[in-house]
Amino acid sequence: MVEIIPAVLAENFKELNNQLAKFVNIAKIIQIDICDGNFVPSISWPMDREDEENVEEILEEEEGLPFWKDLDYEFDLMVKDAHKKFDFFARLGASRIVFHLEAEEKESFKEFLEALDPYFKDNVEIGLSINIDTETEELAPFINYIDFIQCMGIKNIGYQGEPFDEKVLEKIKDIKKKYPEIKIGVDGGVNENTAPVLVEAGVEKLIMGSTFLRSYSIKETFEEFENL
């Protein structure tokens, strides 16, 4: 069965809480899009300094992420050199963390992956995302240190509702040929028209934001995609 992962892009903690509430008892894991205003133009929670109090409560384990008893979280780090801030993101409580290859200084990032604590690697999955124009050959130095690959299905990342770029289909096929055992997800442009094509190409994880935002029934929409 294909894994359906709703994506949430929230400017602040209040908006994050409101968006996550919609998926309780529907989804198992939510992707929280984290944007720094540097690697991508937009800024989202927890990078907005207005939410310092809420963030600090989570870091100090006084509170957890909203609905942490009901949902697991995947952080999509659209953040410049996110691995240098890894301790901060790890302490917020994600079960998966996605780095963007184009946002990282390659040599430093590889050294970081090599040095990751084995206990952490046993408990948190590491994903690597690549943009639509990034060659799949650039994955090679990191492939032994990651659990899955996320292909961006859109040209302009950091926004929801962007048009699907069909070039991602060839990228998926190329990755499947080179690394048949690794799971592939697609983020961006996933909807009722593109999802069947992506699944046919070999995608195991469908990440969707705007598709759920415009849905009249999130539960029904989720089940429709889950049954692809």
Feature tags:
228 residues; alpha/beta; TIM Barrel; eight-stranded parallel barrel; 9 helices
Determine the strand fraction and express it as a percent band.
15-25%
Q: SSE order, as H and E?
A: EHEHEHEHHEEHEHEHH
Identify the quaternary structure here: single chain
Helix content: 25-40%
Output the structural class.
alpha/beta
Mean pLDDT: 93
Number of strands: 8
CATH topology: TIM Barrel
**Helix run count:** 9
Number of domains: 1
CATH architectural grouping: Alpha-Beta Barrel
Described by strand count, sense and barrel closure, the largest sheet is: 8 strands, parallel, barrel
The CATH superfamily is Aldolase class I
Rg for CA atoms: 17 Å
Amino- and carboxy-terminal Cα gap = 8 Å
Sheet with most strands: strand arrangement:
1-2-3-4-5-6-7-8
Show unreliable segments.
none
Task: Estimate the global geometry from the Cα principal axes.
Answer: globular
Could you name the CATH class?
Alpha Beta
